[in-house]
Amino acid sequence: MTFYVTTPIYYANSLPHLGHLYTMIVADTIARSKRQKGIETYFLTGTDEHGINIERAAQKAGRTPKEQADYVVSYYKKMTAAFGLDTAHGGYDIFMRTTEPFHYQGVSELWRRCAKAKTPKGNEAIYKGHYEGWFCAACAEYKTEDEYRKPATEGAPPTCLIHDTELDRISEDSYFFRLSDYGEALLAIYENQPDFVRPDSRRNEVMSFVRGGLQDLAISRLKTSVSWGVPVPDDPDHTMYVWFDALINYITAIGFGNEERQKAVGFEKFWPALHLVGKDILRFHAVYWPAFLLAGGVQLPKAIVAHGMWLDPNGRKMSKTLGNTIELDVLEKHFPVDAIRYFCLREMVFGQDGRFGYEGLIDRTNSDLANGLGNLSSRTLKMISLYCGGRIPTRHISEDKILLAKRSGVDTDETTVSGFIELAREQYLQQFESLNFSRALEVAWSVVARIDGIISDAKPWNLAKDDEQKQTLAAVLYRSAEALRWLSVLLFPVMPQASQEIWTQLGLSGSPGSIEPSQLTWGQLEEAQAIGEVKPIFPRIDKNKIMSEINNETEPTAARATVADAVEGAPGKTETQAPPPTQHATEADAVGVTSFIEIGDFAKVDLRVGQVLSAERIPKADKLLLLKIDVGEEQPRQVLAGIAEYYEPEKLIDRKVVVVANLKPRKLRGYESQGMVVAASIGEEGRPVIATFTEEVPNGARLK
Ligand code: MSP
After folding, report:
1. Nearest of 288, 286, 251, 257 to residue 176 by alpha carbon
2. Model pLDDT, residue 668
3. How far is it, in rounded angstroms, from Cα 299 to Cα 17?
4. 74 vs 333: CA distance, rounded Å
5. pLDDT by residue (tens digit) across 355-400?
6. How far apart are the C-alpha atoms of 688 and 667, rounded to whole Å?
7. Deepest in the core among 115, 291, 360, 637, taking most CB within 10 A?
8. Residue with the nearest Cα to atom 22 of ligand 1?
């Protein structure tokens, strides 16, 4: 039996944050739980390295696209090692990169197969046509009218609803994938395999998206527009659409289209995979990917499981601009890896959005780990040291001491506790199998609470004072130690390090990672065995101290120089987007961004007092005025303003205005606009009212 689990491969334009780490943690947890059951498992993560977005990020950072990808990959590798997710720590089996030559081979093979294929309706699956429309580089996605925001000024490009960045206009010859012919075939799959897209809510969204009708998909760009990618086989003037290339990584990694990989890993051996993805990229995985595979004659994945997005503690999208992202270097510095893993799995109800804040992480670590599991472990082991000479005590209470034990309030029937933990094990594994990690962990913590209760009721410190109660004391401590052994096996996939620690401190050899949880039998902890050295597993975190350190490190946002800023200005993901919460299929979950920004964010906007020197209409542009504005610089700025319907140009001369002076220049109707005039927008039609001053102000004065 084998098992194959994948995370998305992450864009190599910018550095990872908590959101990226999260999917890896989930995949790693699943992989460890499979390995623990003796199932040969392959775990893939990696980077998506092609496309215009990476090309632009590279250009901005003064690197070649490959250098850019190498740079981001080196950071990913550093982070996966620090968080115990790499191969050396028992994590991923491959860090897949789409720039690998074997990937090119496999991708070309699938393209060729699709190019030869007929759709379920008997048409050619790939055909050449002309694409005319809008494209978001950050999403790497073509956008239809209901997926973008129309521009405020006429002639300007629309903006992406997710990233708020301008879309690219595309008008060029392109290869198309005839997705429109696959609707029925896809619906049949979703219907016949209810587990194919999970959870159910996501499956429903996907089905209604497909029922709404599928449009053919442009799957290539002209090489002259995008050169950084896999060339289309037999037509090198075209570069494959990055999503076509990226999705195929899941099969090229294990040997599709390449002999060497096939020998080293084995496509037949591991395929089909369970794909873990954020709900932001569900459509690509649940609609496009199966359609490509159907066309290529390749077996479909086992399942596509979409999780929710991490929001900040106030429920806002995480974004660099809001300064509310959770950075990996901060996490790494202040928190134990297992506490982060536990928090991620405990706090997010799988499939739904969750909230992540440093304070919440500290609170959970302290309550569930330091005071909960950690305390149970250390008090049990300390008492075994103290009262039982550091050896696992005897579990049985002899007949003659039973009454005495009962009198001290201890349940002498051991099966009460063993029955409880056996039932908890069943529930835990069931929830785990359904990927309800949060529920599973609640079940595990019911065991912690139960054992804690047994100890508090029995008061071993009192029993120790009475020679007659030695057996009672021993039985109580045995139960607690045995429960800890079970917990370390059950929790191993979630908290590998802490589980190993507890295991070793119990005096056990080997790893809880090699014990199959369903094989645990009560009473197998050997009596008289010496325990190991007792050390705290989860030291309590001093909330005030750590929060003030974190706040010092993370504020103000704009001034903070972390490694994450090293790919400064990488379009899309780095600056304006952390968790893109919604694509078409998940619109219902769109999370509104409320309006808090850090002072540092405001400081990024260079607002200056300007004076209008001249104003004129632009031929054939009813809404635009061409202004020359003195903002205290050597030369006046040329600024286009969409106010022509409301202001007579002559009346604007000499008027003091507020200008956004550091807005990236852009061309409108052939004129470069070097800034923006600030105006209020009134009513439904958005009537502009220019902001001005009632007192004397010099040109160029900065607004703060
Ligand atoms: N390159 C594509 C995926 C191609 S897969 C063939 C891509 N990359 S990405 O860098 O944008 O990563 C998106 C994924 O990162 C999400 O689907 C999710 O797995 C993870 N997350 C990014 N931000 C997240 C949150 N805020 N919360 C949870 N997961 C998030 O899309």
Report:
1. 288
2. 80
3. 33
4. 19
5. 999 999 999 999 999 999 999 999 999 999 999 999 999 999 999 9
6. 21
7. 291
8. 19
Binding site membership of 276 for ligand 1 (Cβ less than 6 Å): no
Beta strands in 290-353 (DSSP E): 303-307, 310-311
pLDDT of residue 320: 66
Supply angle C-alpha 181, 183, 187, rounded to 5.
150
Query: What are the tens digits of pLDDT across the range 582-610?
Result: 232 222 222 233 346 677 778 888 999 99
C-beta of 24 in contact with ligand 1 (< 6 A): no
Nearest to 140 by CA among 111, 116, 162, 108: 162
60 to 14, 64, 319: CA distances (angstroms):
12, 10, 20
- Whose Cα sits closest to atom 17 in ligand 1? 278
Residue 317: per-residue pLDDT: 79
* pLDDT (0 to 100) of residue 564: 32
**Residue 390 confidence (pLDDT):** 98
> Does the CB atom of residue 283 touch ligand 1 within 6 A?
no
Q: Is the CB of 580 under 6 A from ligand 1?
A: no
Q: Is the previous residue joined to 556 through a cis bond, with omega within 30 degrees of 0?
A: yes
Quick: pLDDT tens for 61-76.
999 999 999 999 999 9
Q: Is the pTM of this model over 0.85?
A: no
Cβ-proximal residues to 177 (8 Å cutoff; 6+ apart), any chain: 114, 125, 126, 216, 217, 219, 244, 288, 291, 292, 295
**pLDDT at 286 (0 to 100):** 98
As a whole number, mean pLDDT of residues 98-107 equals 98
List the residue whose alpha carbon is closest to atom 26 of ligand 1: 579
Distance 516 CA to ligand 1 centre (A): 32
Q: How far is the CA of 10 from the centre of ligand 1 (A)?
A: 6
d(CA 183, CA 674): 47
Q: Is 186 in the pocket of ligand 1 (CB under 6 A)?
A: no
pLDDT of 140 reads 85
User: Which residue has a Cα nearest atom 2 of ligand 1?
Assistant: 10
Q: What b/e sequence results for 442-457 when a residue is b if at least 16 CB atoms lie within 10 Å of its CB, and e otherwise?
A: ebbbbbbebbbebbee
Instruction: Output the CA 437–ligand 1 centroid distance in Å.
Output: 20
Catalytic residue positions, numbered: 17, 20, 136, 139, 160, 163, 317, 320
Q: Residue 323 has which token pair? A: 């300064």
Q: Cα(103)–Cα(56) distance, rounded to whole angstroms?
A: 22
pLDDT in tens, 490-547: 999 999 999 999 999 999 999 999 999 999 999 999 999 999 999 999 999 999 999 9
Ligand 1 centroid – CA 19 distance (Å)? 7
